[in-house]
Amino acid sequence: MPTPLQQVPIHLVPAFGRDYKNSAAVLMDWQGGKDFRISDISSPYNGGYTSIRDWSRADRLMIRYNHLRSFVITCGMGPSRSRSTARSTLKSPPFKSPQSKEPQ
């Protein structure tokens, strides 16, 4: 069962003057690691900048967009993925060693 602090989402707004027309664009930038500003007077980090890498999967976040008239609720996902796991899922291109021909 979630604790009372986990039930109340932290409010975020796009940073650096960005704004979005729809929730799909917000979520694409959030998952892409773009910065957002914490706009929540109940948070000690109010006014600070943050991204997906700073939150755990259990954190609920409300991101406002469309001139702060609309919002989307999402969860943080950053710390649940370790750097080594992310690297192991990347596929490197196959390496072909040059074949040396011996002189005849």
Structural summary, described in words:
The structure is a single chain. By secondary structure, this protein is an alpha+beta fold. The protein has one domain. The chain is 19% helix and 21% strand. A five-stranded mixed β-sheet has the order 3-2-1-4-5, with helices on one face. Strand 4 and strand 5 form a beta hairpin.
Short synopsis of the structure:
With about 100 residues, the chain is an alpha+beta fold. It has helices at about 5, 25-30, 85-90; strands at about 10-15, 35-40, 50, 60-65, 70-75.
Secondary structure blueprint with pairings:
Layout: H1 4-7, E1 10-14, H2 23-31, E2 36-38, E3 49-50, E4 60-65, E5 70-75, H3 83-89
Parallel strand pairs: 1-4
Antiparallel strand pairs: 1-2, 2-3, 4-5
Give the biggest sheet. Answer: 5 strands, mixed
Shape designation = globular
Reading side by side through the largest sheet, how are the strands ordered?
3-2-1-4-5
Helix segment count?
A: 3
Mean pLDDT: 77
What value does the Rg take, in angstroms? 21 Å
N-to-C span: 76 Å
Number of strands: 5
| Approximate strand percentage | 15-25%
Order of helices and strands: HEHEEEEH
Helix content: 10-25%
Low-confidence stretches: 79-98
Number of domains: 1
Structural class: alpha+beta
